[in-house]
Every structure is written in structure tokens, then in C-alpha cells.
Prior knowledge:
By secondary structure, this protein is of the alpha+beta class.
Amino acid sequence: MFLLGIWIQRDKSNSVIDLMFLQSGSTELNNHSVHPNWCLSSDHAPLTVLIAINEENIDSFRFSIVKNSEEEVSFIKEVIHAIKSVDISDISNPIKLEETTNSLVSKIKYAWRMNLKQVNIMKHSKSWWNEECRCALNEYRVSRNLEIWKRFKNTVKTTK
């Protein structure tokens, strides 16, 4: 259910109807204001509402296995080993098949957890961004040298 806020300036015949749709019973949105002195040359009276925005904690990291890393190689080896070690001698029974697949899934999840790495999300969180780019950028930040900046830009271009 919504409240409809309407303001009509009654002293003019061709008035603009200002509308504001607010949720009925909302304590956060029941603080709207009509501003007839903000009209300027129009008969339009602006409406405002204050909306509180709660601070939200957004994680700036995620967990991943970095492409072409030692962790990726280890993960792939462990998954291959898990697949090779699956006992398929008795999977004619639906219950046994379910147990076998659940076991394989558990082994793959375990391999994932053992090899994942925390990756910080930042403006350079691109699929091509690597350790070489990070080092080149840090080197420039320390020196603030134009030649090192050019080297950093070249590193990024080559990496992309």
C-alpha cells in the first residue's frame, strides 16, 4: 500500500500536480516536504523526501584459484586423482550411485578449499592483472618517475 503525496498550487488555473509515492506506514519515508518557495517562475512546487541510507559493508575480497598458479596446478592434480579413484564397481543401485557422486563432489570441494586464495578486489581486479603489473605499479608509486610510469604502462599493455 502506498501513500500518494499531491500538491496543487490553487491560485493558478494551469497547475502542475506533483506526485510522490511513499510506502504507507513507513517511518523512514514519512518525512516528505513541499517547497512552494522553490517554484521560481513555474507553478511546480518541488517535493522532497529524506531517505536514510544505512552503511553497508561490502567485502573487498573474494576467494579464488588464480589462473596459471601453483594452486591451480595442485587443484587440477587433486581433481584428476579424485576422478581416477572413484569406485564405479557398484553404481547400478541408485543409492550407491548417489553415494559415489556425493563422495566425488566432497573430494572436489575439499581440493578447492585447500587451494583457494584470498584475492583483493580493487580497480585493478581484471582477468589480465597479474603480479608483474602489481610490482610495476608499486615501483612507480615509490619513485614517481616518468620513465618507470612508461615501463608500467608497457607492462600493462603487454599483459593485456
